[in-house]
Amino acid sequence: MAVIKRVKGDNYPLEIEIQDSDGDVINLTGMTIFFTVKRNYEDTDANALISVDVTSHTSPTLGITEIPLTAAQTALECTFYYDVKLKDGTEITSVESNKIIFLPHVTIRTA
């Protein structure tokens, strides 16, 4: 995954495909995905801006899952850091880490 861009306050899911280091999809059946967004890398998990755990996946055998993002969670405007981790039993593996940018709205009108 690359840098993620979302518009501030929009609530649409982030669909991701989880692959191993060889580029093969990982069967997500029975696994948990952790998605975390922080202002700074060194912030504690308790101080994360967004923290989502996903246990029900869109197409687990194809390695596809969706991270639900609500309007309240994305009511941010700036560049932050995110990572995706995969939990299989007691083993936790980093899948991706990069920046997430929440862009301001251009259109404000509602009618």
Model description:
This protein is mostly beta strands and 111 residues long. It has a single domain (4-103), classed as Immunoglobulin-like (Sandwich), CATH 2.60.40.3350. It is 0% helix and 43% strand. It contains no helices and 7 strands. The strands form 2 sheets. Strands 1-7-6-3-4 form a 5-stranded mixed beta sheet, with no helix packed on it. A two-stranded antiparallel ribbon has the order 2-5. Strand 6 (78-88) and strand 7 (91-103) form a beta hairpin.
CATH class: Mainly Beta
* Poorly predicted ranges: none
Please work out how many helical segments DSSP would assign.
Answer: 0
Q: Name the helicity range.
A: under 10%
CATH architecture: Sandwich
Terminal residue distance: 35 Å
Domain module count? 1
Instruction: Give me the CATH fold name.
Output: Immunoglobulin-like
- As a percent range, the share of strand residues is 35-45%
Tell me the radius of gyration: 15 Å
Across the major sheet, the strand order is: 1-7-6-3-4
Query: Helix and strand succession?
Result: EEEEEEE
| Net shape | globular
Annotation, overall tally of beta strands:
7
- Secondary-structure class: mainly beta
The chain-level mean pLDDT equals 93
Question: Biggest sheet: strands, sense, closure?
Answer: 5 strands, mixed
